[in-house]
Amino acid sequence: MRVLIAPDCFTGTLNAVQAARAIADGWARAAPTDQLVLRPMSDGGPGFVPVVAAGLGAQLREVEVLGPLGERVLATFALDGQTAYIEAAQACGLQLVPPDRRDPGRTTTFGVGQLVLAAIAEGATMVVVGLGGSATNDAGAGLLSALGAEADRALDSGGRSLARLHSVDIAPARAAVAGVTLIAATDVDNPLLGLRGAARNYGEQKGASPSECMDLDAALEHFAGLVGRRPDGKDPAVALGAGAAGGLGYALLQLGGERVPGIRTVMDILDLPREIADADLVVTGEGCFDLQSLRGKVVSGIASIALREAEPCVVLAGQVSVGRRDYTGIGVAAAYSVASMLGAGDDAAGLAESMARPAQALADAAERVAATWSRRGSR
Questions:
Q1: Do 151 and 248 reside in the same domain of the chain?
Q2: Chosen domain end from 235, 263, 291
């Protein structure tokens, strides 16, 4: 039986490569004769660059940039010919900010702009920016600042300060990327503003209170109003994916960029549709399988292809909070919570308990799932 193992990272515990290996280790214990094919995945968030680099055999370049709090961090981007692949989370990711210092009103995307400039300096004429897992909510103002945008006050001080701006000129930033094709590879399709926008939908998980999320949404609206429409008359604020990575998608679209689902980018590079068609079973997973997982994330992307190819797809997640009716609708045959399977309980405390030794917990859960599924669907 051929089993394709293609998980995303388990945020905060295992990267995608580690998760794939853990699932394979557990699966092999229960079904040692199964052929296991490991394809670690990313939807544009953490892990995007190493996954893409491995799939393309691309070169890696390391550069020092400013992190979300203005500290110096080392980030890498992949270079494949004249195409560069950047992972925003390496410069402004939530994993770079200690829990007690998380404040999306202060964090900046300036370092992502530095990565874009570094890629262009290496000769890139196309820059694909993976968006997801950010600690920021500045509508990409920091990125625009790094590229040369001007304003009556600093643009790299976080989203909260945008409310105090009176003028913004992003023409210098547009000039800095003239002749370069920008691609925003997003993990979500949210617009910049409103109930489904960057601040009100994701601000709390980055450290903001509900009232602060409302204030941040207002600050982003003010900023977008100052920037205005693109030269072609389009308003990027309402575009799909503009709210990705705290509005970083908006900035890239303002610069003339194009938005594509990050999962599609990675699946094309890895030729995943063929891999799924050749498999008897597909196993994917992530840290928390929830309603957001059904929109543009790794699980939904893989499940949709498995459904098209009539291949069973199962999900292993640290925590499952989406109902069976919802996940079967996107092509998932079954979803398993690591916390629940190991008797820890499918809540925050149970998740923490099961993730104390994440690789072992995931392997143990995979062993149990294999005992159920390995005997099904062999060709």
A1: yes
A2: 263
- Gyration radius (Cα) of the chain, Å: 21
- CA torsion angle 83 89 90 96 (round to 10): 180
Q: Would you say residue 309 lies in a domain?
A: yes
Q: Are residues 340 and 255 in the same domain?
A: no
The CATH number of the domain holding residue 168 is 3.90.1510.10
**55 contacts 71 by C-beta, under 8 angstroms:** no
Residues 135 and 256 in one domain: yes
> Does 8 map to a domain?
yes
φ/ψ of 295, rounded to 5, equals -125, 95
Give CA–CA dist 355/344, Å, rounded: 10
Tell me the helix, strand and coil percentages in the chain, rounded to 5. 45, 20, 35
pTM of the model: 0.89
The answer to whether the CB of 202 falls within 8 A of the CB of 191 is no
| Interatomic CA distance for residues 54 and 94, integer angstroms | 24
Contact of 146 with 112, CB cutoff 8 Å: yes
Per-residue pLDDT for the chain (379 aa), expressed as one digit of tens each?
999 999 999 987 898 999 999 999 999 999 999 999 999 999 999 999 999 999 999 999 999 999 999 999 999 999 999 999 999 999 999 999 999 999 999 999 999 999 999 999 999 999 999 999 999 999 999 999 999 999 999 999 999 999 999 999 999 999 999 999 999 999 889 999 999 999 999 999 999 999 999 999 999 999 999 999 999 999 999 999 999 999 999 999 999 999 999 999 999 999 999 999 999 999 999 999 888 787 778 999 999 999 999 999 999 999 999 889 989 999 999 999 998 887 765 555 555 665 678 999 999 999 999 999 997 544 3
Residue that finishes a domain, picked among 217, 242, 263: 263
Rounded to whole angstroms, how far apart are CA atoms 121 and 113?
A: 12
Structural domain of residue 227, as residue ranges? 48-263
